[in-house]
Amino acid sequence: MIYFDNSATTLVKPKEVISAVMEGLTKYSANPGRSGHKLSMLCASKVENIRNKVKKFINSDNAVFTENCTDALNLAIIGTIKSNCHIICTSNEHNASARPIFEMAKKYNIEVSVATPSKAGILRAEDISKHIKNNTYLVCVNHMSNVDGEIADIENIGNLCKQNGILFLVDGAQSAGHIKLDMKKFNIDMLALAPHKGLYAPQGVGVLGFNNDIEIKPIRFGGTGTEGENVYQPTTSIERFESGTLPTPNILGLGAGIDFVNAHFDEINSKIDDLSTYLNYELSQINGVKVYTHPNNSFGVIGFNIKDFGSTEVSQILSDKYNICVRGGLHCAGLKHRYLGTLEQGVVRASLSYFNTFTECEKFVRAIKQISKL
Amino acid sequence: MIYFDNSATTLVKPKEVISAVMEGLTKYSANPGRSGHKLSMLCASKVENIRNKVKKFINSDNAVFTENCTDALNLAIIGTIKSNCHIICTSNEHNASARPIFEMAKKYNIEVSVATPSKAGILRAEDISKHIKNNTYLVCVNHMSNVDGEIADIENIGNLCKQNGILFLVDGAQSAGHIKLDMKKFNIDMLALAPHKGLYAPQGVGVLGFNNDIEIKPIRFGGTGTEGENVYQPTTSIERFESGTLPTPNILGLGAGIDFVNAHFDEINSKIDDLSTYLNYELSQINGVKVYTHPNNSFGVIGFNIKDFGSTEVSQILSDKYNICVRGGLHCAGLKHRYLGTLEQGVVRASLSYFNTFTECEKFVRAIKQISKL
CB-CB: which of B38, B223, B333 is closest to A70? Predict the structure, then answer.
């Protein structure tokens, strides 16, 4: 079995991550931040250590643990909503940001502009700046497309937003673990992470990092372990965004995932770079194969199609006949397919992790060669 | 170490639950419902099997996996909100339901009545019915208080709501696993569960069960693996409530937790009944101890105070000097303490699970005797 669907979720988790989840089910299995006894305090301190680790990893003032990256994007978008204004997003947005933006736009009479890259391979500050209006209050940028790995120049977009006093939200679902993220350096106000992808964490925890000068309103309400007598949501402390019991085992897994990525960052990404470059080149040499991923993009997300074959059909053949797992279809990214002109066909995506091998890539190329002759 | 804080989270998880989470990190570690390949389909089928298990466990038409029980209550309350109307809740509400209710009341001009029990030990249909108005559209009832285990007669309240065409929401956070829940029999429209408590599941997954005739609007938006081309949230299929990647390992743990509870229901609850009865009686015999839990209530939640000692102080002494973990303070349940008159003192809560022992209870009683002499 070859698993090339790591942009959906990394299949193989490092043993340290699995051990950390285990510890969350056995050693640190009380409720953090709810009681004052030893075990609860032990869990709370573990969770706070990992919160600090996350903050350091992305250079953020604050980090909220959410259900998943989508939940983090909802908190960022709905929590900062302004009626009758203007939002800019990009053609690379996943529905995780596009849907909250368009749903809120409908509800609060917000105009949405979808920026597209003027040059292939990278979405630049110029592509955003031409859409800025007087009432633009939010720019939401997908850092790395989940369809073809296309990246956005978040450093210059961050500068642009700062100069214009516009809130800057980055969806780092695909990029975290592959590109170093620094919220202060890149002037990012809010950054959402999907730890179960490039951070090798378990599914079941997301992160929203945000800086101190950003005002976000909670989108869920409930017990926070603070101000118990108050039937309204507390207005201070990070807990106001974390109603209900936190997923302690997953948070512990996230901590171990970040440690793993920090310890092996260059090794992970030089391997993925190498395998991506190989795959991109070899696939592009096959007659009838169109690769959407830019030749210089080597972040492990290779989107392509074979002739006019349905992408879902190709993925099915790969699964059934070759025991290879890739994803076809629209990848929850309608805006991207509108841009690529692939709304009907979709795109076949092979996505890599540190645990893939060169041999797997060779077998994959051979399989695509065979299918392309069908 | 004696752990009597199982109403916050059950500390000891059955080995089957731990194995199931492990399987979710190793064998079933693809993304369910996102791709069409073998591994993804295998995960999706596992998740759907557990969804069916949950539906059967509570006799529900539908079950949504949420971040936690609070998230489920938010979906139920915010997803069915009606402006300028009237909601009834009870003095037993946890902030998990009270806060979304009061926050929405403020935003949508909703009147809220807080029903209190007219007779000690149980909240009855009569206690609710006297608050019903022409514009009452939602009755939200905590099934078992997390402060003193007080229960609500949900069967008769369900009948009352059905007769009056009022939506009936039950917070089953504390009761699930201890009292058999049957949404159809009890005419419950929406039921929220906290699986990491009485279902011995890992933290990091909640459940909202709801019946077919209930219309709920999603409160978060994002990728659902369906209608990828649509930048608005799909209006059909259960996935519209589950944006983003599901916490597969936790869902697998939930499945194993339900199996465990189903297999040992009588054994679990006769043991907890036995230990609760012992604790309640013995504590009530100690000079200066006031037990809030009704003598006939034996669901494992024993709320008490010693003289006018601060409940947090008592919990701290128990932790520091006796190595016993209980919770003091307000337990995120301000309405309850307003009712009990314990807003200042709070309540010391000892809460049991199947994995507690009689010896632990004896030691606990001895400790309380000693503290009561301070």
Answer: B223
Chain B residues in contact with A35 by the CB 8 A cut-off are: 5, 8, 315, 325-329
pLDDT tens-place string over residues A92-126? 999 999 999 999 999 999 999 999 999 988 999 99
Q: Do domains B2-10+265-372 and B15-259 have the same CATH topology?
A: no
Tell me the pLDDT band of B34, cut-offs 50, 70 and 90: confident
Domain range A2-10+265-372, CATH class: alpha beta
Inter-chain contact B39–A1, Cβ cutoff 8 Å?
Answer: yes
Q: What is the CA radius of gyration of chain B?
A: 21
Does the B15-259 domain belong in CATH 3.40.640.10? yes
In tens, the pLDDT along B144-170 reads 999 999 999 999 999 999 999 999 999
Dig out the tokens for A348 from the structure. 């076949």
- Asked if the ipTM is above 0.95, the reply is yes
pLDDT level of residue B120 (50, 70, 90 thresholds)? confident
What are the CA-CA distances from residue B143 to residues B55, B90, B181 (Å)? 18, 10, 10
In one-letter notation, the amino acid at residue A281 is Y
Domain boundaries, chain A: 2-10+265-372, 15-259
